[in-house]
Amino acid sequence: MAFSHAILVRSAPVDQAVVHSQNVDIVLDYNSRIEASRCTLTLTGPNGQKVPVHMEPSTSPSELKAEAENLTNGKYQIHWQVLASDGHITRGDVAFTVALK
User: Fold this and answer.
1) What is the CB neighbour count within 10 angstroms for residue 11?
2) 3 has a pLDDT exceeding 60
3) Which of 42, 51, 80, 86 to pair with 93, CA 20 to 30 A apart?
4) Whole-structure pTM value
């Protein structure tokens, strides 16, 4: 059986989304099994500062989950790096904007 690199197939928030909440659930779903314990997810906020995220367990072997709290208005970028079950590392970014009312 051939394995493939882990490719992001779904994200929440979606790339370039506008979110109207201070608290954001992050879900990244890939096309193959990932080694969650060896994957990283970082969130960068306005002015380039790192924003803490709380990793959460997932019931799916192809999913990373996290939560970011107390976000303020501005542009954010999720940077992810995952290790697929085939041993290859893939990485990418998902951008979103927080617009609180």
Assistant:
1) 19
2) no
3) 86
4) 0.91
- At residue 39, what is the residue type? C
Cα–Cα dist 52/45, whole Å: 10
- Say how many residues make up the chain: 101
Higher pLDDT, 21 or 38: 21
Q: How many CB atoms lie within 10 A of CB 98?
A: 21
Angle at 6 between CA 13 and CA 79, to 5 degrees: 45
Q: What is the DSSP letter of 46?
A: G
SS3 48: helix
* Other Cβ atoms closer than 10 A to 28: 24
pLDDT at 36: 85
* Cα–Cα distance, 29 to 26 (Å, whole number): 10
Q: Side-chain half-sphere of 69: how many Cα atoms within 13 Å?
A: 2
Residues 77-84, mean pLDDT to the nearest whole number: 96
